[in-house]
């Protein structure tokens, strides 16, 4: 009987792996919505605990109230932003295609001559650049058309998929709130790691989800609102520009520049140099330096201190290179929703490395 034990253990391990991969395959159409709901539920679980204490411990009532609150306060506004930006980008795409179809080598050279005149280039360099632009005008126009189409498909396609799983995300939110502690307890039991390592991973995931989600939403609100006010004062469509800035600011460091730089170039082409200078100043100094490089770390510090989390969590969440690369990677793989997935997945990978380092510290060569 005992001689068969090793075979039984191996067979059971094979069955366990088959069951795991089978469930992943079965639920693969819903994994993005479930992961998104898990991030939101984890980030706001502290608020759920407060609501639970005020509802006499009724987990069902508290989970229902919290799910509705997250939907109204986070999911619905973000969905509205994405849909509205998609519609506006669709209109802009039609106008851009019409404009591109009317351009030729001469008109493109004339336009770029206006823009190049403001650069610190010699006359010979400007003439050489214009000659290159004229010779490659068809390639430039084709590339610009492809970029415009790619951006439109990315935003509209991601928005469509985002809207389709909203219901599933809210539905999953309810169960993550109500049964979250039970799910965590079962994961600890099933995990072969010691419980304190399981708790370390779960605590880090909760901390990072909270810090990254709240900081991303906070920065998006500040950048979008500030740019909307400036654009409105300049006579531009403030609501659209503010919403576009808010959505683009999910990408740290370079996000807002993807919106305000084209706006600035458009104003220069229209001959409105004062408005262009104001947009450039606001984009570089206020949005790029003050909000993104000063307010973001301050906000992350305050959120982390309010949660009482360890400094290691903050170091991961505030790592600019990691955050930027993982955000772009998430955007490429998952669309708009990947703006949340990428940083959390990258940070959790570092957490796994930390667990491995801590567990095998006596085997690692530190010389």
Compressed to H and E, one letter per element, the order equals HHHHHHHHHHHHHHH
* Number of contiguous helices: 15
Quaternary assembly:
single chain
Give a count of the beta strands, DSSP E runs of length 2 or more: 0
Rounded to the nearest angstrom, the distance between the terminal CA atoms is: 48 Å
Strand content: under 5%
Characterise the protein shown here.
The protein has 367 residues and is mainly α. It is 84% helix and 0% strand. It contains 15 helices and no strands. It starts with a helix and ends in an 8-residue tail after the last helix. Residues 310-314 have low confidence and may be disordered.
Brief overview:
This protein has 367 residues and is mostly helical. The protein has helices spanning 5-26, 31-43, 45-54, 59-101, 105-116, 123-135, 137-164, 166-190, 195-233, 238-248, 257-269, 273-307, 311-317, 320-334, 338-359.
Secondary structure elements and pairings:
Elements: H1 5-26, H2 31-43, H3 45-54, H4 59-101, H5 105-116, H6 123-135, H7 137-164, H8 166-190, H9 195-233, H10 238-248, H11 257-269, H12 273-307, H13 311-317, H14 320-334, H15 338-359
């Amino acid at each position: 009987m005992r001689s068969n034990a090793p075979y039984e253990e191996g067979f059971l391990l094979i069955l366990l792996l088959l069951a795991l991969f089978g469930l992943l395959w079965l639920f693969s159409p819903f994994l993005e919505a479930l992961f998104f709901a898990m991030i939101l539920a984890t980030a706001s679980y502290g608020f759920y605990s407060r609501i639970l204490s005020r509802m006499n411990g009724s987990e069902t009532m508290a989970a229902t109230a919290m799910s509705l609150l997250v939907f109204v306060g986070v999911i619905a506004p973000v969905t509205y932003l994405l849909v509205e930006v998609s519609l506006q980008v669709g209109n802009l795409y039609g106008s851009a295609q019409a404009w591109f179809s009317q351009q030729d080598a001469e008109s493109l050279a004339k336009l770029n001559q206006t823009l190049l005149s403001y650069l610190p280039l010699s006359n010979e360099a400007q003439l050489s650049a214009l000659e290159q632009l004229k010779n490659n005008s068809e390639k430039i126009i084709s590339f610009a058309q492809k970029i415009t189409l790619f951006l439109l498909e990315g935003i509209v396609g991601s928005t469509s998929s985002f809207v389709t799983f909203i219901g599933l995300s809210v539905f999953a939110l309810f169960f993550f709130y109500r049964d979250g502690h039970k799910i965590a307890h079962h994961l600890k039991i099933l995990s072969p790691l010691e419980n304190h390592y399981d708790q370390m991973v779960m605590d880090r995931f909760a901390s990072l989800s909270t810090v990254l989600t709240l900081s991303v939403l906070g920065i998006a609100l500040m950048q979008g609102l500030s740019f909307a006010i400036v654009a409105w004062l300049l006579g531009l469509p403030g609501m659209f520009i503010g919403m576009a800035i808010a959505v683009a600011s999910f990408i740290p460091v370079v996000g807002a520049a993807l919106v305000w730089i084209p706006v600035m170039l458009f104003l220069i082409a229209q001959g409105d140099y004062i408005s262009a200078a104001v947009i450039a100043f606001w984009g570089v100094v206020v949005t790029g330096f003050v909000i993104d490089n000063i307010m973001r770390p301050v906000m992350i510090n305050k959120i982390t201190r309010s949660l009482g989390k360890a400094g290691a969590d903050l170091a991961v969440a505030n790592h600019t290179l990691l955050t930027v690369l993982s955000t772009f990677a998430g955007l490429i793989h998952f669309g708009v929703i990947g703006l949340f997935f990428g940083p959390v997945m990258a940070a959790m990978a570092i957490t796994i490395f930390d667990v491995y380092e801590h567990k095998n510290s006596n085997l690692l060569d530190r010389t």
